[in-house]
């Protein structure tokens, strides 16, 4: 399409404006994180205060919170992705009684907000002694990710080539061997996207760890940050450093694999 | 769902024995059933009881639901959620459509880089976003500092402590988070429109505005549906943003349903009522998304 040079220039002005709007608040928190902790520290000089991160790590107990987050994230990703691949395989390539209703049941889980089931979940988990444990925090998140993951993997298995499956079938491969040796290796991009989204949602989740571990025994990084903000009111440098620490793992992965995040969120949202 | 024909074509014999598919489903169904489906059923049950979380519970029928529609503070919270829909959803959609339409008129170099940046707020934990905006809105924060620097000192205020301005201030954080997502979605949709349609519209003498309403807007109906669904759900279940920035205050000026559920169940000890609010919130979410998708499908 032919457009004037003025219009082309407008495009860049618009894009740069919105990029700055997005990056501005992020820049504010990053610059605070590298700034002096107090007026006396400022007087000592030094432009970039790396020590804020070490101090936040210790004072804000982020080593503890990040460890909890890593453990919870690993459990959720392993359980959710494994279950989703298996269930998506059944829905994607097999015919069986009740598949329509069962799949609709999984779709429901994508729509239902956490707030709908968190209240009874807490009291039932408390009565079986699962609150304030890693499993109490991880398993509900795994269940939520399975709802999306099953939907996501089903779409992949439906698009996978029937001819290849039939050929393997004729060679005498069982359904589990076909899954492990053909479909999973071929589906690496789809599975990687699911792993990334599950990791991101789990790492960023707030309500479930807040409710399921009221004693703070399993406090994940976002909660640690929220409580750090409540307790540590003097000076914003350490708080900002903590915020950067909490955001960093996902942002670093995102910068390298942004295609998977963007396509996952957008395609995943386009339900049938 | 077009599963009928598709699955007929896919009648593979992979499921040699009848139980095989169910064996593959079992692990997912177990985790999903125990930790999500069953609690939803329990929520419906809880909502019929009056319980403080510790002592005996008493059956009260639909009383909790009557309370949801009579309790001024709960109604106010739902009202706030609808205000947030404007900031999280309507405003980003309007901006997203406009910006994407402008950008779509010619090829832009480096669009991939900008897309990565615009999408960035989606991957940052909401708690981090909330902490960042608290600093910006602080009485001596960046926003007031900037206003003073431009000689607009009389506009400065404690943004998160003002009865009139706190809800819009919290809402604007949602605008900040959602707008990039909507722009990226709209660009993807508009990128799929065949160029010939624009050429034809031009030959008919359409200007940029006519082009937008005649060609672009009808073509991205599906993407608009997706954008509205995603952002409205995000608006209705905002919890962490409110918890970290205002805790519903000042007064009750920024409470939202999800925050009320948390507060009633775990701070006040009105568990049955909290469960009822959760069920009502779910019905609102399902209703709104169904209506949006019905309208969007009519294309």
Automatic annotation (TrEMBL), chain A:
- Highest taxon above the source species: Bacteria
Q: Which residues form the ABC transmembrane type-1 domain?
A: 66-257
Compartments it resides in = Cell membrane
Assign the protein's first listed, main location to one coarse class.
membrane
* Signal peptide residues on this chain, from the entry's feature table: none
Q: Which regions span the lipid bilayer?
A: 12-34, 65-89, 101-123, 135-157, 178-203, 237-257
This entry carries the following GO cellular component terms, namely: plasma membrane
Report the record's Gene Ontology biological process terms: transmembrane transport
Entry annotated with the keyword Nucleotide-binding: no
Q: How does it sit in the membrane?
A: Multi-pass membrane protein
One short Pfam name that applies is BPD_transp_1
Alphabetical UniProt keywords? Cell membrane, Membrane, Transmembrane, Transmembrane helix, Transport
The family database entries (PANTHER family) matched by this protein are listed as:
ABC TRANSPORTER PERMEASE PROTEIN MG189-RELATED (PTHR43744:SF12), ABC TRANSPORTER PERMEASE PROTEIN MG189-RELATED-RELATED (PTHR43744)
Q: Which family does it belong to?
A: Belongs to the binding-protein-dependent transport system permease family.
Name-wise, this protein is Carbohydrate ABC transporter membrane protein 2 (CUT1 family)
Q: Which organism is it from?
A: Labedella gwakjiensis
Taxonomic lineage is: Bacteria, Bacillati, Actinomycetota, Actinomycetes, Micrococcales
TrEMBL record, chain B:
What SUPFAM superfamilies is this protein classified in?
MetI-like
Q: How does it sit in the membrane?
A: Multi-pass membrane protein
The text of the family note is: Belongs to the binding-protein-dependent transport system permease family.
Sequence ranges assigned to domain ABC transmembrane type-1 in this UniProt record = 78-292
Gene3D superfamilies for this protein: MetI-like
GO CC annotations, alphabetized: plasma membrane
GO terms, biological process:
transmembrane transport
Task: Indicate where this protein resides in the cell.
Answer: Cell membrane
| Annotated transmembrane regions | 21-41, 77-101, 113-133, 165-188, 271-292
This protein's major location comes to membrane
Q: Does the keyword Membrane apply?
A: yes
State the UniProt keywords alphabetically: Cell membrane, Membrane, Transmembrane, Transmembrane helix, Transport
Q: Which residues form a coiled coil?
A: none
Tell me the leader sequence span.
Answer: none
Instruction: List the protein's name.
Output: Carbohydrate ABC transporter membrane protein 1 (CUT1 family)
């Amino acid at each position: 399409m032919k457009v004037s040079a003025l219009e082309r220039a407008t495009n860049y002005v618009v894009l740069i404006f919105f990029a700055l709007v997005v990056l501005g608040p992020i820049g504010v928190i990053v610059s605070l994180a590298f700034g002096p902790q107090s007026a006396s520290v400022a007087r000592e000089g030094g432009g970039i205060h790396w020590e804020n991160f070490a101090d936040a790590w210790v004072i804000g107990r982020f080593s503890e919170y990040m460890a909890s987050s890593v453990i919870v994230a690993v459990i959720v990703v392993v359980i959710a992705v494994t279950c989703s691949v298996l269930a998506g395989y059944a829905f994607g390539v097999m015919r069986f009684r009740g598949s329509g209703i069962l799949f609709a049941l999984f779709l429901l889980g994508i729509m239902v907000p956490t707030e709908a089931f968190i209240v009874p979940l807490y009291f039932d988990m408390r009565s079986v002694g699962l609150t304030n444990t890693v499993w109490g925090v991880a398993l509900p998140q795994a269940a939520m990710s399975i709802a999306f993951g099953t939907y996501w993997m089903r779409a992949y298995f439906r698009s996978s080539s029937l001819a290849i499956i039939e050929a393997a079938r004729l060679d005498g491969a069982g359904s589990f061997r076909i899954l492990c040796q053909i479909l999973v290796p071929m589906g690496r991009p789809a599975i990687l996207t699911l792993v990334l989204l599950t990791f991101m949602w789990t790492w960023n989740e707030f309500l479930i760890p807040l409710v399921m571990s009221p004693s703070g025994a399993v406090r994940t990084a976002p909660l640690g940050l929220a409580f750090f903000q409540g307790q540590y009111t003097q000076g914003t440098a350490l708080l900002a450093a903590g915020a950067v620490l909490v955001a960093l793992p996902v942002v670093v992965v995102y910068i390298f694999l942004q295609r998977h995040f963007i396509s996952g969120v957008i395609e995943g949202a386009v339900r049938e | 769902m077009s599963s009928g024909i598709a699955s007929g074509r896919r009648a593979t014999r992979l499921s040699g024995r009848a139980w095989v598919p169910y064996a593959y489903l079992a692990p997912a169904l177990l985790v999903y059933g125990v930790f999500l489906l069953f609690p939803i059923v329990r929520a419906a049950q809880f909502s019929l009881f009056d319980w403080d979380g510790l002592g005996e519970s008493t059956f009260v029928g639909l009383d909790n639901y009557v309370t949801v529609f009579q309790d001024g503070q709960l109604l106010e919270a739902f009202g706030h959620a609808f205000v947030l829909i404007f900031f999280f959803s309507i405003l980003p959609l309007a901006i997203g459509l406009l910006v994407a339409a402008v950008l779509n008129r010619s090829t832009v170099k480096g669009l991939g880089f900008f897309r990565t940046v615009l999408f960035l707020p989606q991957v940052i934990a909401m708690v981090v976003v909330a902490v960042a905006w608290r600093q910006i809105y602080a009485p001596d924060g960046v926003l007031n500092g900037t206003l003073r620097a431009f000689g607009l000192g009389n506009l400065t205020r404690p943004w998160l402590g003002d009865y009139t301005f706190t809800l819009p201030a919290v809402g604007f954080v949602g605008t900040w988070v959602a707008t990039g997502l909507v722009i990226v979605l709209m660009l993807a949709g508009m990128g799929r429109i065949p160029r010939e349609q624009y050429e034809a519209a031009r030959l008919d003498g359409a200007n940029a505005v006519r082009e937008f309403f005649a060609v672009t807007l009808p073509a991205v109906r599906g993407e608009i549906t997706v954008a509205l669904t995603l952002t409205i759900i995000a608006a209705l279940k905002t919890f962490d943003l409110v918890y970290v920035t205002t805790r519903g205050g000042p007064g009750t000026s920024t409470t939202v349903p999800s925050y009320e559920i948390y507060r009633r169940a775990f701070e006040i000890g009105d568990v049955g009522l909290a469960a009822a609010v959760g069920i009502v919130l779910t019905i609102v979410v399902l209703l709104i998304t169904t209506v949006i998708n019905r309208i969007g499908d009519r294309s």
